[in-house]
Amino acid sequence: MTILASTAARFLLQAVAAHDTVITRQVPPVRTWFEQVVFVASGISTLLVLLLITGLVVAMFAVRRSVQRAHAALDRRIAEFGERVDEFNDLLGKVHRRVETVVEVGGMAMDGIAWGAKKFGEGRRRRRKSRDDKAAAAGEPAAAQVEANLDDRRDESANDDERDSPYDDSRGRKK
User: Fold this and answer.
1) Which one of 24, 60, 135, 158 is most buried, counting C-beta atoms within 10 A?
2) In this structure, are residues 143 and 131 in contact, taking their beta carbons and an 8 Å threshold?
């Protein structure tokens, strides 16, 4: 009961003092025309700053979305390029294997040509020797034998003017 009595006593005191209370309203100060212009400009600039920040946030999300699309497109292009590089490497491997086969066949052909030339030279020497032996037995002079060197490399001491290559451009120059 003491709580209720103290609350009732407060309301009673406020009711007695209520007729002496003056209710006032705060009035804004009177502004000059310059102060009014500044006040309106301040309000407009605040609204524009809020609009600018909102626009920047929207633009930031749009840029983020476009950057993500650009990254996805770039990743697709890189993947396509990687696939093309892999295809090119496969093709290059096939070409390399074919070239090795051609080189191997060419090497075998050169070995066969060298073997044939060697055998051909031995056969000519035998026939020539038997002819020379028959001529010597008959008292005729032996024919001079000329052998061609199978190595087509020129002697390094040979004169440059004696070269007969159509690709040699050193003929016209004097050393």
Assistant:
1) 135
2) yes
- Higher per-residue pLDDT: 164 or 94: 94
Token readout for 41 is 């400009």
SS (H, E, C) the chain: CHHHHHHHHHHHHHHHHHHHCCCCCCCCCCCCHHHHHHHHHHHHHHHHHHHHHHHHHHHHHHHHHHHHHHHHHHHHHHHHHHHHHHHHHHHHHHHHHHHHHHHHHHHHHHHHHHHHHHHHHHHHHHHHHHHHHHHHHHCCCCCCCCCCCCCCCCCCCCCHHHCCCCCCCCCCCCC
Do the beta carbons of residue 89 and residue 95 sit within 8 Å?
Answer: no
Length of the chain (residues): 175
Q: How many CB atoms lie within 10 A of CB 132?
A: 15
What's the token pair of residue 138? 């008959």
Evaluate if pTM is beyond 0.70: no
Alpha carbon of residue 115 to chain centroid:
51
Q: Do 143 and 128 contact (CB within 8 A), yes or no? A: yes
Q: Which long-range contacts (CB under 8 A, 24 or more apart) does 128-137 make?
A: none
